[in-house]
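Friendly challenge for the regulars: who can give me the structure tokens for this chain first? No prize, just bragging rights.
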Amino acid sequence: MDNPPPLPNNKNPDSELNNEIAEGQPPQPAPAPGHVAVPIPEPRCLLYKVPKKIWKIDEDMHKPTYISIGPYRYGENGLDSRSQVWKEWCKNEVVKKLTQQADEQIAPVPPTVIDPNSIPNLWDNCFRWNDILLYGNQLPFLVVREIYKLLHPGVDPNQKVGKVFADSMLARYTRRKLTNPGNADSVLHLCHKLLAPTPDPSRNGGGDGVVKTGQWRRATEYRNLRVKFKKREISSEGKAQCILDVKVVCCNVVKIPSFDLNPESWRLLRNLMLLENMNKHLGGHVTSYCHFISQLACTGADVSLLREKGIIVHGEASDERAAQKLCNLCDEIIYDPTHDYLKSAWDKLEKHCRHPGWLVWAKMFGYKDWKNPLVWMATLAALALLVCAILQTMYTIKTYQDQAKHRART
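First reply, four minutes later:
Bragging rights claimed.
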């Protein structure tokens, strides 16, 4: 494909489109002139290249399967020819809208692309469901809005485009209603906003004085310490609206929304964590959740336990395969334990698990040998002998006391 047409001479290089794309470091706020207060704008969610160390972990995960878009995808080969035609059409039409170029500078739109049957099929089956969530395949949201205007003239793109993702792509992860999608800087940024944990006052309780979140225990270890796991239902109006709404009740009951482990969810979470790592002002709630679930279910036994509770759903060949994928979920991702939204939940569970009574319980009844019925029979027999010995001792003492009283009378 030829190089994209240059911006017109009267266009400021620091235009709205260019400000959405960052090749290097985020721009610094302008200094205030004199002593006049200048409002600081909200930091933008900038687009960077995928770091090489992340790329090398799984190169196929970061490669688009059909549509290659975004500022860092230009000039890549190997995709379907129809993708190149679609890209050419988007370049011509969207750049015309954004830069106000003259009509004579725009090549005619290929008729095979503007066919009403080909565009929805391309949008629904390829563009929306697979490649649009790749971090390295992101476009500024203003470009996505212009594309939607071309596909559906006269329709508000903010609500419609956002509703597509909220009701279709993210339906298994969140029930949160979309309020203002225009605030998102990219499609992945919109997904990040929808997957923010629901405000919960109980998260403020506990964790007093805790500087950072420590290592989460395995699910089976929590079970041995009398911690119960329950599935938490999510809804659009309830206190749990997305999969990140993990809650600890009564210090030993953990309520976790169901998580469907599949290639789509794995890719979504990896790209959201990468977005957080590259834009620190977004926070790290997705990274904190992935850190929690990957440590909680790091073995096949842990996955089996959570699967029986309905908390984890997967289509892998075995629970061990699913656990291996969860273990690799946070590879090369920077995690900040001092800004973990689950800090208070970890503190509550840790205080429960370190209680001496529960530690003794775990030592006595946490062994796998207790699953053998012969062990239980032997234990009951030993208890019966112990009771008989106690009764025999009591009767012996009573008999001795009765004899002593009889001698005293005589």
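Confidence is low (pLDDT under 50) at residues 1-40, 100-128. The beta strands are 228-232, 247-249, 253-257, 259-261, 312-314. Your move, everyone else.
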